[in-house]
């Protein structure tokens, strides 16, 4: 008996959704589920015979709309989980640093990693960490909205860097088709913070990102603050 | 010490490239590398400090151009591997059913799985199988060009179904953002052959696929028959 682990990808926003389950008890969690792919995810949960226990968001996303609320409607015993301090009315659990959630014999631990947004949480399970937009592969999240702070993100990434070097990193996005990295690689090669970049240089690099706002931000943030409850189903 | 395993994705053709390596000896193989993402893959191989030993193609692709030749140019000790019977002049090894390749302490075994094309090969390593376009997640490859045969594909998939139920399936493509399946799931839920579909029904379903030709077929097939040697570098 082992961990069922299914990384899933949404092409338009390049978002990774992660489905994890205990293959024996069939209890499952899903991390960062996306509105556009909810039928795929519901179908997979049903085919695998899973009982969805937690619907976890690493943060309130600005680039895509969550399927948390529709998933909860479908799997009514599931609890929606967001980090404490997030301005959301729809979460069943507001999780804080060090809190654990269990599914079957597995335990996932919240690690507060603010900076991309003020309510960002990473999740550690065994030799894997789900970093949301805090730490991306060779990059990191932007810090220019939703209470973002490059200064806080520097501390959060240093916190992530205390994990074992071989820990596998599963981010919320990758725009180049990479699916996984590791702590040692990001310490060495991350283009924002790798190779021992100091706080001042990191903040300067983040502030120089010069990105346009996500196309969906004015729809996605309000929608995600109610866990996608106000989005008309697309089937 | 363990297996380094990196699934990589190319968005335009929805192709998965797989990089595998022995974390101790650093010997590596790459399966179905794509022209457009070769700089990403070369960068990753270099950052991880790997010695590329085999550049493996599951088949001569019709939808994208391989980066086999450019990879070999960069990593000159690597050998290009294709299934026997493929009309290619560029392979160093023409592999046949049951042949093994080793990298570090790991062994990967060729399983001939014709049908999508006549030269298709799947590769088994431990509890993983790389199925190319023979068996896709909830689907299978088309059989209407390059010596394709739905009849042969039926036998090939039955052959794949002799693997242990928990074997993880890593296909060459997924168009819905799924990254992995398992033998038992495809036996149960595959929309072409799952649930005990018989040969006649399978052949009928494959013949009813009604797909247009891949946009790149007239460029990709000749290019891949020389392992991408005639493609001008894009950097």
CATH fold group of chain A = Metallo-beta-lactamase, Chain A
**How large a portion of the residues of chain A is in β-strands, by DSSP E?**
25-35%
The CATH architecture designation of chain A is 4-Layer Sandwich
List the uncertain runs of chain A: none
Mean pLDDT of chain A: 95
Number of extended strands of chain A: 14
Described by strand count, sense and barrel closure, the largest sheet of chain A is: 6 strands, mixed
Q: Percent helix among the residues of chain A?
A: 10-25%
| Count of alpha and pi helical runs of chain A | 6
* SSE arrangement of chain A, N to C: EEEHEHEEEEEEEEHEEHHH
Q: Structural class, from helix and strand content of chain A?
A: alpha/beta
Number of domains of chain A: 1
Seen as an oligomer or otherwise, the chain set is homodimer
GO molecular function, one term (chains A, B): hydrolase activity
Cofactor (chains A, B): Fe(2+)
InterPro entries (chains A, B): Metallo-B-lactamas, Mito_Persulfide_Diox, POD-like_MBL-fold, RibonucZ/Hydroxyglut_hydro
Family (chains A, B): Belongs to the metallo-beta-lactamase superfamily. Glyoxalase II family.
């Amino acid at each position: 008996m082992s961990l069922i682990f299914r990384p899933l990808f949404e092409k338009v926003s390049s978002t990774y959704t992660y489905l994890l389950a205990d293959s024996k008890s069939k209890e499952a969690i899903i991390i960062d589920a996306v509105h556009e792919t909810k039928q795929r995810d519901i179908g997979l949960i049903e085919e695998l015979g899973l009982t969805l226990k937690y619907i976890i968001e690493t943060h309130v996303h600005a680039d895509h709309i969550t399927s948390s609320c529709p998933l909860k409607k479908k799997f009514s015993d599931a609890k929606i989980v967001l980090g404490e301090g997030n301005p959301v009315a729809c979460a069943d659990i507001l999780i804080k640093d060090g809190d654990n959630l269990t599914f079957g014999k597995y335990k996932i631990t919240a690690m507060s990693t603010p900076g991309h947004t003020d309510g960002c949480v990473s999740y550690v399970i065994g030799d894997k960490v789900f970093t949301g937009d805090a730490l991306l592969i060779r990059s990191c999240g932007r810090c220019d909205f939703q209470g973002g702070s490059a200064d806080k993100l520097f501390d959060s990434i240093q916190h992530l860097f205390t994990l074992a070097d071989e820990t596998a990193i599963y981010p919320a996005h990758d725009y180049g088709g990479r699916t996984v990295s590791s702590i040692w690689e990001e310490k060495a090669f991350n283009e924002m913070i790798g190779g021992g970049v100091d706080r001042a240089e990191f903040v300067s690099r983040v502030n120089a990102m010069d990105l346009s706002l996500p196309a969906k931000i004015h729809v996605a943030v309000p929608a995600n603050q109610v866990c996608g409850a106000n989005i008309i189903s697309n089937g």
